[in-house]
């Protein structure tokens, strides 16, 4: 869904100054140690779906900021990362299937577009398993990098 100007992740050329609207980053201890401070929302731990949405956001965003022409080391690092990620994924059966997928389908890391499309296909493999529609991988970059806004 287009929502006006697409928010973008910062590129390396942009300032890395952290801007935080809250000027106070001090730790304020609770007056009652058995209760969290009242300004914490009491959110529950993630379920498989919530974990999945957050994880896909991370993975596709990593592809969106991966170099267009990565070095050999960057390609090796990305392959190692995906193997390790699958091995420590907090939903064990999801991680096991992802590991099997990676073994059958070696991650494509020669370019940003290769990685983005590979991840899109990996995500589609899970979509099919869960009975969800496939995403058209020609649009991965619009969904995760450029946004849908018309020029
Ligand atoms: C590695 C991994 C393995 C998983 N395995 C399982 C499993 O075995 N069982 C299980 O129940 N859940 C699994 N999940 C979670 C599952 O994939 C979903 O994240 C979860 O069901 C929530 O789905 P959703 O409909 O909110 O959208 P998600 O599938 O989380 O997608 C989020 C957004 O990504 C976009 N999108 C959808 N498909 C693609 C694509 N192919 N390429 C690019 N963008 C796309 C869409 O905009 C969508 O709204 C796994 C998640 C991960 C990261």
From TrEMBL:
Cofactor: FAD
Biological processes annotated in GO: cellular response to oxidative stress; intracellular iron ion homeostasis; mitochondrial disulfide relay system
Subcellular location: Mitochondrion intermembrane space
Enzyme Commission (EC) number: 1.8.3.2
Bias-annotated ranges (Low complexity): 16-33
Reaction catalyzed: 2 R'C(R)SH + O2 = R'C(R)S-S(R)CR' + H2O2
Full protein name: Sulfhydryl oxidase
Natural source organism: Lodderomyces elongisporus (strain ATCC 11503 / CBS 2605 / JCM 1781 / NBRC 1676 / NRRL YB-4239) (Yeast)
